[in-house]
Amino acid sequence: MTYCIFKEQICKAVEGLLREQQPDISVETESFVRNNGVIKDTMVFRKANLKEAPAVCLEDVYREYQKGKCLEELADRICRIYRDCQDGSGFEPEKFLDYAQAGQRIIFRLINREKNRELLEEVPYLPFLDLAVVFCYLTEEKFHGSGTILIRREHLRLWDVDADRLWEDAFRNTPGLCGAEMLVMDDVMRNLASFRGLEGKTASMYILTNRQQCYGAAVILYSDVLKNFGERFGKDFYVLPSSVHEVLLIPEEDWMDLESFHQMVREVNQAAVTEEEILADHAYFYKRDVGLQYL
Predict the structure, then answer these.
(1) What is the pLDDT of residue 47?
(2) Is the pLDDT of residue 125 over 60?
């Protein structure tokens, strides 16, 4: 079954199952611009007084179908997720509309500034090196973790706040709501032999992300996280943006050079990172007496 036919069939199947209990619901496909300008087909649910519903990426569902899952099984799974979301929704419009409450759940994310030029015309952001800090409202759900709402300029007008106020609140909230994790890469991953200019080398590598491992590269914005890493090793270090979800920290050694790590980031982006998940196409360097730099 082609993707175009699959989109139509899966929406009909889900709609048919949900209408057994909710006759007025409809299920449709809409295209949304995601990170880095990537356009994704998403299943949307329409119903009177529907305050929240899951966003189902149809490309992901189609990949499951191609791997052997039958359409009926996939439709049933989507219906269960939808019902769980309705039973366990943590989105309360009255709290979102009141910034005194909404401000307690504002968090930040890091995205590529150049690749998101059109998006950044519509959302408040702060520049950070060659990247952009954007803001989200973090919802709570019983069954499927947390969801987010990207903050747009109309939300600022609604709340009568500016980007600086969002930054102040997100800087306070994000470490507590999203946390931070640092993992040591195993020996296989630390072997750099497959990258040009780094043949025969190994390095100490550490993965820095958040608890959800979702847009975890933003952890580099936490107060003193990078400073403490430098103090722990007594060295300056390289910061490699492996994706929007995580960065690699590599303490500096005499044989290392920044251009080799620029090349490493580009090769990984081409081979293993989807366009939507790319954060940058080069490495950064942290000097203990200066801070994080893009050289």
Answers:
(1) 82
(2) yes
**Three-state secondary structure call for residue 259:** helix
- Residue 56 contacts residue 43 (beta carbons within 8 Å): yes
* In the block, residue with structure tokens 């390289």: 238
pLDDT in tens, 196-233: 555 566 778 899 999 989 999 999 999 999 999 999 99
Give the Cα separation of 271 and 216 in Å (integer): 20
> 279 with 217: CB under 8 angstroms?
yes
CB-based contacts of 229: which residues, under 8 Å, 6+ apart?
182, 206, 208, 237, 249, 286
Rounded to the nearest 10 degrees, what angle do helices 58-66 and 71-88 cross at?
Answer: 140
Residue pair 134/148 in contact by the 8 Å Cβ criterion: no
Q: Kind of pairing, strands 39-46 and 284-287?
A: unpaired
- Boundaries of every domain in the chain: 3-88, 93-177, 181-293
∠239-211-209 over CA atoms, to 5°?
5
pLDDT at 158 over 80: yes
The count of C-alpha atoms lying within 13 angstroms of the C-alpha of 89, restricted to the half-sphere facing its C-beta, is 13
- Residue 116 and residue 127 in contact, taking contact as beta carbons nearer than 8 Å: no
Q: Of 1, 15, 145, whose CA–CA distance to 78 is shortest?
A: 15
Tell me, what's the pLDDT at 75? 95
